[in-house]
Write a structure and sequence with these properties.
two-stranded antiparallel ribbon, six-stranded mixed sheet, 10 strands, TIM Barrel, 7 helices, 25% helix, alpha/beta
């Protein structure tokens, strides 16, 4: 078994609310400096920067999963992770079809910038990526599984764009194996009757480079691979406290 530090919720400059310094290469490099072994790029409703990020992470010796932070129809965020770029890009194409036909307003929401692994600007996304896709939260987990991935609700402790804020409770029927919390999760949250026994870990949800957290949580894997990470998540990750 190998003990690996991880952060599975990161944004690049392709997210409209992501810092322009959060380029694929800079993000991968900062994760390496923070001592993180396993990372995932989870831009809003797109996997468009996963390929350059994964290449940059490989250069730094960091295992990267392609992913997405999906905004479900209920406006709750769900982290979606995939075993490879082909699966991520196929899922991204499906989500693209289910987003509202709205154009981004860079002056209001921020630019959505495509870059390669050497931080060369490739272009700008004009469609608004932070809207809600017409995918319900009760169908999200199974849909992601059909692409070979794993999904779980993001930052459930927050008062906006979260499962608890928007739906009010944890329902096992949604099919999620675990939950993500923010770095400022209130103590005692998992003493709630609906959350007792729910496995969980935190994600930095870093939109800027200075929000990347130093290594502080770990997974034990039989091998260093994306599939081993996904198996760990499906099995409940760290388990309940």
């Amino acid at each position: 078994m190998e003990r690996l530090s991880f952060d599975l919720h990161l944004h690049s400059c392709l997210s409209p609310c992501g810092g322009e310094d959060n380029t694929p290469a800079a993000l991968a490099g900062m994760c390496a400096l923070a001592g993180i072994n396993v990372v995932a790029l989870t831009d809003h409703n797109t996997c468009g920067s996963c390929a350059p990020f994964c290449r940059a992470a490989e250069y730094y010796g960091v295992l990267a999963l392609p992913g997405m932070e999906l905004t479900c129809a209920e406006e709750a965020h769900v982290v979606c992770l995939f075993p490879d770029l082909a699966a991520a890009e196929a899922f991204g194409a499906l989500v693209r079809e289910k987003l509202p036909p709205i154009q981004n307003r860079p002056a209001v929401f921020g630019p959505q910038i495509y870059m390669d692994e050497e931080d060369r600007v490739l272009g700008e996304e004009t469609a608004f990526l932070a809207g809600a896709a017409s995918i319900g939260i009760y169908e999200a987990a199974e849909l992601v599984r059909s692409f070979g991935g794993a999904a779980y609700p993001a930052h459930i402790d927050r008062d906006s764009f979260s499962l608890l804020a928007n739906l009010g409770l944890w329902d096992p029927a949604m099919g999620f194996p675990l939950a993500e919390v923010s770095r400022n999760c209130p103590p005692g949250l998992f003493e709630r009757p609906d959350l007792r026994g729910v496995p969980h870990f935190d994600g930095s949800d870093a939109h800027y480079l200075d929000q990347i957290l130093d290594a502080h949580q770990y997974m034990d894997l039989p091998e260093r691979s994306t599939r081993a990470v996904l198996d760990w998540i499906r099995a409940g990750g760290p388990g309940p406290d």
